[in-house]
């Protein structure tokens, strides 16, 4: 039985129902290829546009996967979580490769059309901010800046702030698994456990974001230098301040207390809510910042 083309989702003229579905109809390739509209005649601008549009598509997939990950964590499905996280990390790798491709853009070629982009900035990407919030970042400085300038949060970001993040769901899953201190995750009896593997994949995800941030700054310096403000008005130092952002800081902090804290994580009489050697204690729920 042949598949037939359905009406486009945005209300455009429907594809004829009696015509077999084709690759171009299914993916709407003609419409997709019309979305690249350079503001200049510079040949390098099309490269810049395509990379950023492709990134936004990958951001959409990441957001869908992160929401699914929260649901799977809450359902207690660690194996499925690991499968989903591997795809998430593969997607992050693709995003890094796309970012690196912009290094092939000659700086003089970029400056030839950059002046037309004033007012537009990657910092305005709603999906990028949504991904940070979905992952576990609650950036108070960002919220204060928005309020101070009289702005409002984009609806998807505001909605994500009201929902549980991956970090929230991960901490709750560890709590249900009996963890009281994050260094306990590295005890011999937990080696290779589903929670251990999941946590290491989350650390990989966090590290991939750090790589993206550092490589983005390197790219900016390569293209416009360190003293030039971006088209949105911010400078490189603003981007460099994001290097400290972590979605799962407790997993990084646990490294500070290995191996000694593992051997005596909770000695007799140690106060509840803390752990030996100051290792990060686990609490159900809460935000990651």
UniProtKB/TrEMBL annotation:
Matching InterPro entries: Trp/Indoleamine_2_3_dOase-like, Trp_2_3_dOase
Pfam families registered for this protein in UniProt: Trp_dioxygenase
Gene Ontology terms for molecular function: heme binding; L-tryptophan 2,3-dioxygenase activity; metal ion binding
GO biological process per UniProt: L-tryptophan catabolic process to acetyl-CoA; L-tryptophan catabolic process to kynurenine
Location of region: Disordered: 262-289
PANTHER family: TRYPTOPHAN 2,3-DIOXYGENASE (PTHR10138)
Annotated protein name in UniProt: Tryptophan 2,3-dioxygenase
Source organism of this protein record: Streptomyces toyocaensis
């Amino acid at each position: 039985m042949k598949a037939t083309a359905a009406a486009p989702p945005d209300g455009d003229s429907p594809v004829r129902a009696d015509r077999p579905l084709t690759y171009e109809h299914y993916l709407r390739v003609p419409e997709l290829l019309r979305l690249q509209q350079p503001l200049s005649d510079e040949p390098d601008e099309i490269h810049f546009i395509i990379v950023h549009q492709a990134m936004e598509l990958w951001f959409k997939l990441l957001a869908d996967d992160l929401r699914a990950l929260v649901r799977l964590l809450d359902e207690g499905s660690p194996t499925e979580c690991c499968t989903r996280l591997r795809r998430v990390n593969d997607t992050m790798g693709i995003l890094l490769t796309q970012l690196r491709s912009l290094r092939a853009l000659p700086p003089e070629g970029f400056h030839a059309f950059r002046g037309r982009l004033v007012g537009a900035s990657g910092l305005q990407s709603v999906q990028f901010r949504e991904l940070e919030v979905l992952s576990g970042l609650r950036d108070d400085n960002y919220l204060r800046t928005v309020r101070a300038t009289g702005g409002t949060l984009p609806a998807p970001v505001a909605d994500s702030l009201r929902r549980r993040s991956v970090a929230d769901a991960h901490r709750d899953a560890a709590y249900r698994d009996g963890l009281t201190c994050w260094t306990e995750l590295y005890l011999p009896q937990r080696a290779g456990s589903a929670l251990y593997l999941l946590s290491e994949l989350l650390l990989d995800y966090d590290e991939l974001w750090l790589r993206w941030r550092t490589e983005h700054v390197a790219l900016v310096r390569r293209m416009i230098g360190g003293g030039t403000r971006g088209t949105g008005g911010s400078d490189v130092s603003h981007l460099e301040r994001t290097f400290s952002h972590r979605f799962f800081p407790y997993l990084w902090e646990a490294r500070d207390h290995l191996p000694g804290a593992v051997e005596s994580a909770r000695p007799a009489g140690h106060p509840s809510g803390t752990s030996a050697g100051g290792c990060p204690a686990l609490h159900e729920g809460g935000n990651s910042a």
